[in-house]
Amino acid sequence: MADTDPITREEWQQAVDFAHTGLLIDSARQYGLITGGPEIDLERCEELLRRGADQGIWPRRNAVDLCLPTFLTSGERPECPRCGRLLTTERSRRAQLCEVCLEDSRHQSGGQPA
Asked: Which single residue of 22, 23, 76, 88 could bond 40 by disulfide (Cβ 3.0 to 4.6 Å)?
């Protein structure tokens, strides 16, 4: 298990969606349909898809629509300053902490949101 593995079901869904989209981008590049773009770690994408499927998590029908804008931007993806996980939800982006660190903060503060 890598340090960057998803933890929550929501994180797993995001990871599976991004892995699916990454593989499609790489396929389009191999067919000469696009050039340039982000470097895709094919092995990691396949691993995340396999492990997600083991948990019953599959790419959503709109995974490409949800994930492609992130791939098409400058490549900067918001990360949690505490642990480096991607900020995948609106709540985590507003708080500038991933969902795991938000929950940790909430528990440490006696149940109050971070």
From this structure: 22
